Prior knowledge:
Layout: H1 3-15, H2 18-25, H3 29-43, E1 48-51, E2 54-57, H4 59-84, E3 93-97, H5 105-116, E4 122-126, H6 129-137, E5 143-146, E6 155-164, E7 166-169, H7 176-179, E8 192-196, H8 201-210, E9 218-223, H9 226-234, E10 240-242, H10 244-247, E11 256-259, E12 265-273, H11 280-297
Parallel strand pairs: 3-4, 3-5, 8-9
Antiparallel strand pairs: 1-2, 5-12, 6-12, 7-10, 7-11
Helix pairs in contact: 1-2, 1-3, 1-4, 2-3, 5-11
Amino acid sequence: MRLRHIELFHAVLTTGSLTGAADLLNISQPAASKALQHAEHQLGFALFSRVRGRLQPTQEALLLRHRVEKIIQDLHGLQRLTANIGRPESYPLRVTCTPTLAQALVPDATTMLRKAFPGTTAELFTQHSAEMCESLMLHEADIGLTLQDAGHQGLRQEPLCHGHVMVIAPPGWWSAAELAQPLPVTALAGQPMIGIAMQDALGRMLQSHLTQVVPAPQTSVWVQTYQLAYALVAQGEGLALVDPFTASRSSGKAVQTRPLKLQLDVVLYAVYRLDSPLNPVQKHFLSLVRQLAQHMLAPA
């Protein structure tokens, strides 16, 4: 199929009629009809049949639909890219991050960036680290922010900030004197805890240390994100081990926080492709992320 046939096919799928497709593509209805006939002649099968005055896709057309929609999406992306080339301040910022970092760090950094570069558009989404690496390699995102070592040979990872695993508890769980001291991991013995499903390296590391505690913590609820753990702790379900960014959300009213005496390091990494040097906007964004992260984790 030629590109003009693909565009017409997609337009008819979208509007359900040749007249609507012609209007969408800014061509005449006879021209649209002739182009559709030409496309079907080249393909050797019909793409649409008329049902109650509307064009309905044939079975063959339905097989093509997903691939055609992907081509149209890529074409729109190419059009945006060509419009932005030569204007670095207008390059789209495409960032994927873990759910923890989407709570405050990434939104705050994006807002600050757009004040410095008002013409910049941003595409932000959340993924776990394995999915993040795939999105970066497929050029679906340009920067990833994660709390674990990506370990991918096609990606560069840049450490931005260091912190430690924290323990959070419902309000009033610890006294003021206890809050001033790190919590020994042995103090978790027999305590009610929210379990973190072992989907990443940090979760596996936490679980490996908890298995050495005797008697074992009492875990009745398992979650896959630290945000869910935080919410359950705030509801009084028990304690949880979380990353320092999740813990930094607390003002002391929703949950109490203490560092774990074991001092398990947590590193915030920026991840990006080795073959795609960062442009000025992306570099400025990472500088903002670094500053904000260090401020969030600074001792009170």
